[in-house]
Amino acid sequence: MGELVFVGLGLHDEFGISLKGLEEAKTADAVFLEAYTNFMPDFSLENFERLVGKRVVVVSRKQLEDENGWVVLEAALKGKAVLLVPGDPLVATTHVAVRLEAQKRGIKTRIVHGASIVSAVMGLCGLHNYKFGKSVTIPFPENFSETPYNVLAQNMRLGLHTLCLLDIDVEKNRFLTVREALEMLFRVEAEKRLGVLGGETLAVGVARAGSLNPTVKAGFVKELLDYDFGGPPYSLVFPGRLHFMEAEALVAFAQAPPSVWRLVE
After folding, report:
1. Number of domain units in the chain
2. Sheet architecture: strand order including 30-34
3. Taking the model in full, what pTM does it have?
4. What range defines the domain where residue 223 resides?
5. How far apart are CA 54 and CA 257, in angstroms?
């Protein structure tokens, strides 16, 4: 019986993969890549294929989700298959489902972790990871949901930071912007009036985490609405109560206003 190895690609380009992950791809009988759960701005499939010395098959959302990853599992039944995933491979629930399906079929699975947007954003902001509450994805307007607002409200009550991942559709080259995400949250605020979000609420916008030139900007929401973050992908962080070192980091690394100190515990 063969095996299936989930390998994280990192965040930005083909050089974000670990040496271990690269070796797994080089020694695999079949290599697959999904590119829809995250966007890697400078990733080149052609360059990556030269790097590993073999053809890489790109699999779609339909193949992994609707068809339970059968194209990958079929290859794993015959030998060693590698599934390359942006970021850290098992953060997306899609891949947990594929791993479970592999186990049901008696296929051995292994994981080679990669850099995750979750830890990257925390590091870029200088916020302590153990002070983050539940994270949430803010969807495109046509999939409007009050869940992001509710999660933000819950975390704020507890004094915790909130990481918001902004929706993407790689196949359509579409990315939810920081402004669009904030406008959706304001829409719920206008209805619920819980005082969760206002023009004076502190937030941090992050773009292109993992690249050589990420944009990290902390400021009041009214300022971030018109701030130019450059190209995608984007994330938003709403800080809760701050440790003094977190406040210092936001000022130093994210150009936060001096009034950020009022959030210090």
Report:
1. 2
2. 57-59, 30-34, 80-85, 3-8, 108-112
3. 0.90
4. 117-263
5. 50
